[in-house]
Amino acid sequence: MSSKNLTSNDFEAQCLGENVHPSPMATECFCDSYERLLYHSSLNEIQQRIANNSEPLSFEVAGPRRNIFFDPAKIACGIVTCGGLCPGTNDVIRAIVMSLYHHYGVQNIYGFRYGYEGLVASYGHKPLKLTTELVSRIGESGGTILGSSRGHQDPAEMVSMLSELNIGILFTIGGDGTLRGAAKIAEEIARQGKSISVIGIPKTIDNDISYLQTTFGFETAVSEARRSTYAAHTEALGARNGVGLVKLMGRDSGFIAAYTAMADCQVNYCLIPEAPFTVAGLLADLETRIRQRGHAVIVVAEGAGQELMTASDQVDASGNKKLADIGVFLKEKIMAHFAEIGLEMTLKYIDPSYTIRSQPANPHDTTFCLSLGQNAAHAGMAGRTNMVVGFWNHQFVHVPIKLATSSRKKIDPVGRLWSSVISSTGQPAKL
Amino acid sequence: MSSKNLTSNDFEAQCLGENVHPSPMATECFCDSYERLLYHSSLNEIQQRIANNSEPLSFEVAGPRRNIFFDPAKIACGIVTCGGLCPGTNDVIRAIVMSLYHHYGVQNIYGFRYGYEGLVASYGHKPLKLTTELVSRIGESGGTILGSSRGHQDPAEMVSMLSELNIGILFTIGGDGTLRGAAKIAEEIARQGKSISVIGIPKTIDNDISYLQTTFGFETAVSEARRSTYAAHTEALGARNGVGLVKLMGRDSGFIAAYTAMADCQVNYCLIPEAPFTVAGLLADLETRIRQRGHAVIVVAEGAGQELMTASDQVDASGNKKLADIGVFLKEKIMAHFAEIGLEMTLKYIDPSYTIRSQPANPHDTTFCLSLGQNAAHAGMAGRTNMVVGFWNHQFVHVPIKLATSSRKKIDPVGRLWSSVISSTGQPAKL
Amino acid sequence: MSSKNLTSNDFEAQCLGENVHPSPMATECFCDSYERLLYHSSLNEIQQRIANNSEPLSFEVAGPRRNIFFDPAKIACGIVTCGGLCPGTNDVIRAIVMSLYHHYGVQNIYGFRYGYEGLVASYGHKPLKLTTELVSRIGESGGTILGSSRGHQDPAEMVSMLSELNIGILFTIGGDGTLRGAAKIAEEIARQGKSISVIGIPKTIDNDISYLQTTFGFETAVSEARRSTYAAHTEALGARNGVGLVKLMGRDSGFIAAYTAMADCQVNYCLIPEAPFTVAGLLADLETRIRQRGHAVIVVAEGAGQELMTASDQVDASGNKKLADIGVFLKEKIMAHFAEIGLEMTLKYIDPSYTIRSQPANPHDTTFCLSLGQNAAHAGMAGRTNMVVGFWNHQFVHVPIKLATSSRKKIDPVGRLWSSVISSTGQPAKL
Amino acid sequence: MSSKNLTSNDFEAQCLGENVHPSPMATECFCDSYERLLYHSSLNEIQQRIANNSEPLSFEVAGPRRNIFFDPAKIACGIVTCGGLCPGTNDVIRAIVMSLYHHYGVQNIYGFRYGYEGLVASYGHKPLKLTTELVSRIGESGGTILGSSRGHQDPAEMVSMLSELNIGILFTIGGDGTLRGAAKIAEEIARQGKSISVIGIPKTIDNDISYLQTTFGFETAVSEARRSTYAAHTEALGARNGVGLVKLMGRDSGFIAAYTAMADCQVNYCLIPEAPFTVAGLLADLETRIRQRGHAVIVVAEGAGQELMTASDQVDASGNKKLADIGVFLKEKIMAHFAEIGLEMTLKYIDPSYTIRSQPANPHDTTFCLSLGQNAAHAGMAGRTNMVVGFWNHQFVHVPIKLATSSRKKIDPVGRLWSSVISSTGQPAKL
C-alpha cells in the first residue's frame, strides 16, 4: 500500500457546493472542519514528513455537519446494492434509511432492485419504497432485501432515472467494480451539472479495499469460516491419515483465509494469493506431517496458486477474471501424490462460500454497519460526492473513490500479519 | 417395512447363557422379564392378530437386569466405531464407558482405533485405554475419538484379539455394513464356543435402519442442514431469478432431506430416492415458479434420481455402490435449460455434508446417546448378543441384528410423512 | 398417569355433526376411520385387557379426512395464543394459516390479540387479519406475533365475538388453564347450539400435559437451558470451591431440569418437584463433593422443594399458585452453610427462564409445530371439537380436552427416567 | 482520557537490561527499535505539538526483537489469571505457552492456580505444568483452566516463589486491580535486584482500561449480550405493554451496554454510569413510549445510576466497591409507577452476566488473544517489565502499567459514541 506519490489532494473528497442549510439533526455533536485523521500512525513517518517540510497526509473525519448542502424536505434518496452477498448489507440499508428519516426528515427513499439494473428503466424493476417500518428488522436476515446483480450499466441512463425520481443522494453498496461504476455516475452527474451526491459504502467480504482497515461483513465471514475448519479438523482426526481441505473466499487478497487460520489453531497450512507456493513444496511438507501426526488441515484462498494452473480468459459479469479452481486442483494433486507413494489416506474437501456470505451480520458487524450507514447519510447531506465511507485507525473517514480503488489491499508476505499466520499454523515460511 | 412373514422368534435377541451374578448396580429400577413392547401400535392390527389367534409381535425392553451374565470384575470390554462421522458418536462412547465403570465396576475398557482395522493385530493400531477421566468431556467435540474406517476384516482375526484382551463385551458403533460385520463376529464367537457378547449401536445419519424409529445424530444433522437451506434461500432471494440447490445426505432413504424441507418452510422442492421424478418434470415446474416468483430453493438427497444418470459399477470400501452426483447433474441440467430458453438466472449449489456430520451432538442427541450407551452396557452385561439397541415408540428395546438389517427403512411415497413434505414445499405430488 | 378407571369413551373427541362436504385437499393420503392408535404399548397390558375381555384403549388418529364438516368457503377461522412465551408458537400459527388457506381455501383468518382478552369486545383489541404472506417467515422469530395474556374471560362474551365474525373454528394455543378455558367456550357453544369447533394446541414448555408424550418448544428449551449449565460449570471450575446453581422452569413437573441434566454431563445435582429432598441432605452431600472435587453444578426446577419454604397464598392471573423462589432460597442456604463451616467458596446463581422461552424454535420443534398446526386444521375442518392435538408413540392423535387436563404429567420418582438422571448426575438416590 | 500532563517518559516501558542473546525465533520479521506508534491520530493535535516544539507522544511497538534479554534455555516462565471470568482467557494462556515453547524453546512453563493465591506457598496450590499438548484445545472452553481468585497477596511471598521456581517472566492476566498487584510485584523484584520480568495482559470485559482501544473478550461479551436483548424484546412484544429490562456488566464504564444497544436496534433505552439520569425522567419517557408503542426494551449497565440508590460501604475481595443493584431498583420503580398510574403492564427482568462472561471466545477474540499472548511473550523475552500489551490504532504496543492504570477509560457523554447510541435507541439526550 505504497503512498509514495500521494499528495494531500488525493485524500480530499469532492463537494457539490456550499453548506447553506442548518442541519435539522438533534445533536450537539457535530463534526468540526478542523477534524482530520492522520493517514500515517508511525512516529518515524511523521518525523520524516516534518523534516521534509511536507504536511502529513490525512483524511477528513466523517460525521454530521452543523450546516448541510441539501434541503432534506426537497430531495429523495436512493440506495442500490451490487455484487455478491455480504453479511451486514441489510444493516447498512437500514442505517441509511433510519438516519435519513430520523436525523434529517427525508421522506422519500427508494431501493433500486437488482444492482445497477434497477437504475435502468428498460429493465423494468420498480424501485421499492423504503420506510422505517419496512427496514426495521431486516438486519435479522442475511442477503440484501434489494437483490443484487453484477455488471455495469450506462451512466447516462442511470442519471436520467435519478433525475426523474428527484434523487439528491445515491448510496451505492458494493465492491471495487461497483465503486468504479459509482465514480462514472458521479462523473456523468458532474458533466450534466447536476447536484446529485454519490456516496459509496465499500462492500467486500475479502476486505481488500485500500485505505480501509476493515470492511463490513468480514468478521462475520471469519466466524462462519471457522465452522468449516472445525469440520475439516474433525474429519481429519476421524480417519487414519485424514486431510481436511477448506477453500475460502479471497480472489486477490487472503485476509479471510489468514484470519481464519489464526482463529482456529488446528489449521496447519494456509495458502493465499500473496504468498506463492509450489505443489511439490506443499506435498513434501504435507507428507512429512501426515507420516508424523496422522492428520492435517489446509485452508486455501480461492485466488491462491492461480499460476500453478492453466489460465482461463473468461471473465464474469463484473469483469472479474474467472479463477481456476484451486480447491479441486489441490484435492486431486494431494490424492494423486499419496496414491503414488502408496500411503493410504482420506481427504475431505469443503467449499463453504455461499453459506458464509449469506449469514446475517454478527453484533460486531451490525454495529459497524450502523455507523457506516449513518456516516454515509451525513456525508451525502453535507454534499460530499464521489467518495466512500472508510474506517481508519478506529475512526470513520471520507475517502475519495479514486483513492479507494487505486490499488488493492493485500497481505504483505514479509510483514507481521503473515508472520503471525505461519507461526500459528506452524507451516514453513516458504512452501 | 412389511412384517408379513415375521414371527415372534425374529424379535428375540440371542443370549450367551444364564444370568447368575447379582447386578452390582445401585438402583431399584431393574427391568422385569415380562416387560415387552408391542411392535404394532395400531388398534386394528392388534385386533386382527387376536382374531387370527396369533400373538402380537413385541420387543424385549432394554434396561438393567437384576441378575447379569458376566462377573464385571473378570472381564474387559471393547468399543469400536466404523463408517462415516455422525454427531453423537463420542457421547455414545462416553455413556458406555461411564455405565460399565460406574454401574458395574468394569476396570478395563479398550477403544479400538480406526474401525475394524483396530481389531486386527497386523494393522498395529494399539487400543486406547478408556478411562472415565479421558471420556469425561469428549461429547463436546464432533467426530470420534477412536477414529474410524470403512470395510470388513477377517472375523477370526478379530475374535483372536478379543480373546487375547479378555474382552467380554464388544460394542460396535456403526451402520448397516458394520452391523453385518458385527453379526459375523458374533457367529465366529459362537462357532468357537466363546462367551463374548457383541452389542451394536446403530449409527446412521440417514436414519435408515428398520425397526428403529430414530437413530442418533439425525436431529443434529437436520438442524445443521437447515443452515444450508437458509443460505440457499438467502442467495436465491438476492439474485434475479435465483435458484438455491442443496444436496443432503441420504443414499437410499430421504429422511434428512424430507425433515429439512419441513424444518425450513422456504424449501420449494424436495427430491428423495423413494419418490422418482423426471428431469423434464422438475424443469417445467421450476421454470413456472421462477417466472412467477423469481426464486426457488431445491433440496436433493444424494441418492435421489440415480436412475436418471449413467450407472457406475464402483463400490466404496464399505461395499456401498458409488453414487453418481445428482447435485452436479441437476445443477447442469437446470442451467442448461434456462440458457436454452433464454431466461437469465443464477444458481448457487451447496453441498454441506462434511460440515453436517462433523458437528457435536445437540442436547436432544446427547441425551439420546446417553440412554443408548447405558442400555447397550446393560444388554451386554446381561449376556445378550448379536443385537442392537433400538428405539421404538419412545422406549429402548433389544433388536436382533438380523432383524435390524433385514431391510432398509424408507419413506413411503404414498404415506403421511411424504404427504406432509409436499404440502410444506408446495411441490406437485408427481414431478 | 393412572388409566385404571378410564373407558374407551374418555378417549373420544366430540363431533359437531356429519361430514357432508368432500375435502378440497389435494392428497391421496386421507385418514380412514378405522385408524386408531393404542394407548398402551406394553404387551402385558394388552394381554391383560384381552384376558378381561375389555377392548384396548385407543386414540383417534389425526389427519385429513376425505369428507369434512365445514364448507371452507363459508367460514372464517380464529387463532388465539395464551399464557407464557414458548418456542414454536409462531410456527404453529403459521402452520394453521397455511393449512387452512392452501389445503382448504379458507379466506378469512383472524388472529385475536393478547390471549382471551382479544375475544372480548370491551378490551378493544382489533383482531389481526392473518394472510399467508404475513405469516410466511414469522417462525424465524421467538414469542408470538399475536401477543398473549393470562387469565380467563367470560365464555358468553367470547362466543358472541366468534359468532359476529362468523368463526367456524377457534384454535387456542395454550397450557392447562387455557385449555380449561377452551373447554368452557366449547360448552357455551354447545349450550347455544352453535356449530363452532374449538381445537386446542397444547403449549407448555414444562411438557407436563398428560396423554401427550411431547409438547412443542420443549426440545428448544432444553437446548437453550444447556447453555446455562455450561456457564454454571465454567464458573464453578474457574473458582476455588465453585458452585454453579441454575434455576429452570418446571412448576409441577421437572422435565426440563431432568433432560437438561442428562444433556449436560457436568451437572452434579438435579432437583425436581417430584423427588423431595431435604436441605440438610443436599448440603451434606454438596459439602463432601466440594471437599473432594472442588466444584459442583446444581440444577433446580422452580417448583422443587416448595414444602421447604414458607407457603404463599397468592395466585397469578392464570390461577397458578405463586411459587416461593427455590433458587434464591438454596443460594442463601448453601452460602450460609459454607460460611458456618468456614469453607471458603463461590456460588454463581443463574436464572435463564426468559431467555429460554423467548427463543425461536429449533428445527425439531419447527417440524413438530408444522404437523401440530396442520392436524389442528384437519381436526377442525372435520368437525371435531373440545379436543387437543396430541402426540403419542410417534403419531398425532385427537385427545379430548377433558382427558388431557384430567391430571398433570409428572416424572415418576421411582421410574426409569429419573433413574437415568441420577445415574447421569451421580447424585444419591435420596438427598 | 486527558493527556495534558503526560510526557514521552510516561509512555516508556521499563527494561531489565541489555538484550545480549540473539533470538532463536525463526522469522525475518523482527521489530526495529525505531518503530513507534503515535498516541494521537488527529492532524490538529500533531500540528499543535510541532508548533510547540514538543515531540509527539508515542508507544513502543510490540513484536519479536532480534536480540533478547533472557537465555530461553535457562529460565522457567509462569502464568497467573485473576479476577472474574472473561472470554478468551484460555486463548491467551495458550498463545503464551505456544510462543514461549515454539518461538523460544522455553521448556518449563507453570500455571499458578486460583490467582495470586497460587503464588503464595501457604495456600498449597501446586502449580500446573503447562505443555503445548495440555493447552492445545483449551480455547474451545470458556473460563480459565488455571482458576482465578480476587484480592491481593504479599509481594515478597510471591517473589519468593518466583525465585524458587526460577521464573524469568511472570505473565499476569487480569484487570485494574490485578495490574496494580503486578506493578507491586515488579517493584519488589526491583527492590531485590532480581531479573524477573512482569508482563500484564489486560483482562477487563468492561473494556475500561485507558490507553487500550480494545480488550479481549469484549466483542464476545457484546455478542452474547445481544441474545439477552433479543429475549427482552421478544418478551416485551409478547405482552400488552411489555417492558424488557436487561442489566449488563459495566461498573464504571458503559461500553458493553452501549455497544449492545447499537448491535440490537430494538433497544429503546441505554443507561450507563457516564450519563446520569433521573428516575422521574426515565419513567416519564417510558410511560409515553408505552402508551404510544405498547412495548419497550431497556439496557442498564450495572454501575449506572448508583447515585440514585442508598450507598453501601462494602467492598469485594478485589477492593471494588459493592454496587447497589440498579436492575432490581429500576424494576421496582417502574412497576410501582405503572401500578400507581393504573396502567397494566408486564416487566421481564434479565440478568445474564455469568452466561456472558463464561462463553468461549468468538473467532475475533481468539485471533486477538493469539496476538496478545505472542506479543506478551516477545515483550518478556526482550526484558521489558512492569508493562502491559496494549492495542492502539490497529497495532500492538507496550504500555507501562502505571500509564494503563492511571485513569479509567469511559464513554464521553458528549462525544460521538454516546451520540450514536442515543440516535440508535431514540432515547432523549437527557433523561
Describe the model.
Four copies of one chain form a homotetramer. With 431 residues, chain A is α/β, with parallel strands linked by helices. Chain A has two domains: 8-215 and 359-404, Rossmann fold, CATH 3.40.50.450; 221-357 and 413-425, Phosphofructokinase domain (Rossmann fold, 3-Layer(aba) Sandwich), CATH 3.40.50.460. The first copy, chain A, is 35% helix and 18% strand. The first copy, chain A, contains 13 helices and 17 strands. Chain A has helices spanning 43-51, 89-103, 132-135, 155-164, 176-191, 218-238, 255-263, 279-293, 326-341, 353-357, 363-381, 401-404, 416-425, and strands spanning 14-15, 21-22, 36-38, 58-61, 67-68, 76-81, 108-112, 128-129, 167-174, 197-202, 242-248, 269-271, 295-301, 346-350, 384-385, 387-392, 395-400. In chain A, the strands form four sheets. A nine-stranded mixed beta sheet of chain A has the order 3-4-17-16-10-9-6-7-8, sandwiched between helices. In chain A, strands 12-13-11-14 form a four-stranded parallel beta sheet, with helices on both faces. In chain A, β9 (167-174), α5 (176-191) and β10 (197-202) form a beta-alpha-beta unit. In chain A, α4 (155-164) packs across α5, α6 (218-238) packs across α7 (255-263) and α7 crosses α13 (416-425). The model of chain A has no long low-confidence stretch (mean pLDDT 93). At the C-D interface, α6 and β14 of C face α6 of D.
Biggest sheet features of chain A: 9 strands, mixed
Shape of chain A: globular
Average pLDDT number of chain A: 93
Give the C-level CATH assignment of the largest domain in chain A: Alpha Beta
Q: What's the assembly state of these chains? A: homotetramer
How many helices of chain A? The count is 13
The low-confidence runs of chain A, each spanning 5 or more residues with pLDDT under 50, are none
Number of E strands of chain A: 17
> What is the structural class of chain A?
alpha/beta
Identify the most extensive interface between protein chains: A-D, 60 and 60 residues
Strand content of chain A: 15-25%
Helix content of chain A: 25-40%
Distance from N terminus to C terminus of chain A (CA atoms, Å) equals 25 Å
